[in-house]
C-alpha cells in the first residue's frame, strides 16, 4: 500500500532490530551538523523540522514492525505539480529472524520446503554501517554535478510503500506513485547494510538537456 504524508552500541556490538531501525531512520533525517565524518547541510525551518519529525517517528514504527518496503522523496514544481526529482530508497529486511529485543519469542515448526534457506547476512558493527552511510551521503552531495538546476519554486512530499496490514495514521493518505512522466533519467545510489536491513537508493530526475 502506498501512503503519502500530507503535512508539507558500542563499536564492537552487533546491531539489533531496534538498533537497525534507529540507524535507518537517522539516515533519512537531514539537518545541519557534522555526521558520518561529513559536514552536512540541514534545514532550520521549524515547519519542515516538524514535518520530518512526524515522518521519521512513523518510519521507525514501520521498520521495527517490518511493514515498510520503500520510502520516496518527491520534489515537484509548486506551480505545475510536475515531478522533477524522485529519490527512492528500498528498505529490505536482510535477517528476518531478528526480533525486537523486548518482544517475546515463540518457537514453531517450520514448513518443509525443497528450496534451501538463504544464508543470513554477516554481522556488522555500527562503525561499518556508518562508513557505508558516509559513502552514500557523499554521493548524494555530489549529485549536484548531474542533477538539473531547480530554478523554480518547488515543494516536496514523502511517500511510503507499506504492507497492506500496516497501521497507517490518519495523516497519511493513499497516493499514486508520483513518477516522472517524460524524459526521465535514473542514477543508482550506493547501498548500506546494518546486517538486519539493507537500504538501496535510486534517484530519478527529469532530463532537460544541456544547461549553461
From TrEMBL:
Q: Is Transmembrane helix given among the entry's keywords?
A: no
Region annotated Disordered, chain positions? 96-129
Pfam name, any one? HORMA
Q: Record's superkingdom?
A: Eukaryota
Coiled-coil region:
none
Which GO BP annotation is one of this protein's? mitotic spindle assembly checkpoint signaling
All residue ranges annotated as the HORMA domain in the record:
1-203
Cell compartments where the protein resides: Nucleus
Tell me a GO cellular component.
cytoplasm
User: Which SUPFAM superfamilies does this UniProt record tie to the protein?
Assistant: The spindle assembly checkpoint protein mad2 (SSF56019)
Q: Enumerate the PROSITE patterns for this protein.
A: HORMA
Keywords in UniProt for this one?
Cell cycle, Cell division, Mitosis, Nucleus
Q: Which family does it belong to?
A: Belongs to the MAD2 family.
Q: What is this protein called?
A: Mitotic spindle checkpoint component mad2
Question: What lineage is on file?
Answer: Eukaryota, Fungi, Fungi incertae sedis, Chytridiomycota, Chytridiomycota incertae sedis
Q: Which gene encodes it?
A: MAD2
Amino acid at each position: 500500500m502506498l501512503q503519502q504524508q500530507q503535512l508539507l552500541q558500542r563499536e564492537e556490538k552487533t546491531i539489533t532490530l531496534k538498533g537497525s531501525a534507529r540507524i535507518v531512520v537517522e539516515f533519512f533525517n537531514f539537518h545541519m551538523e557534522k555526521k558520518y565524518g561529513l559536514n552536512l547541510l540541514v534545514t532550520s525551518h521549524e515547519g519542515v523540522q516538524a514535518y520530518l519529525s512526524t515522518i521519521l517517528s512513523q518510519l521507525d514504527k514501520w521498520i521495527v514492525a517490518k511493514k515498510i518496503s520503500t520510502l520516496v522523496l518527491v520534489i515537484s514544481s509548486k506551480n505545475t505539480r510536475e515531478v522533477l526529482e524522485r529519490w527512492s530508497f528500498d528498505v529490505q529486511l536482510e535477517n528476518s529472524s531478528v526480533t525486537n529485543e523486548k518482544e517475546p519469542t515463540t518457537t514453531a515448526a517450520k514448513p518443509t520446503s525443497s528450496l534451501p534457506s538463504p544464508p543470513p547476512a554477516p554481522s556488522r558493527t555500527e562503525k561499518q554501517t556508518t562508513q557505508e552511510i558516509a559513502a552514500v551521503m557523499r554521493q548524494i552531495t555530489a549529485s549536484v554535478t548531474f542533477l538539473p538546476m531547480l530554478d523554480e519554486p518547488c515543494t516536496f512530499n514523502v511517500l511510503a510503500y507499506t504492507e497492506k496490514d500496516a497501521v497507517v495514521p490518519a495523516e497519511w493518505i493513499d497516493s499514486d506513485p508520483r513518477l516522472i512522466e517524460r524524459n526521465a533519467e535514473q542514477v543508482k545510489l550506493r547501498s548500506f547494510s546494518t546486517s538486519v536491513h539493507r537500504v538501496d537508493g535510486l534517484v530519478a530526475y527529469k532530463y532537460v538537456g544541456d544547461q549553461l
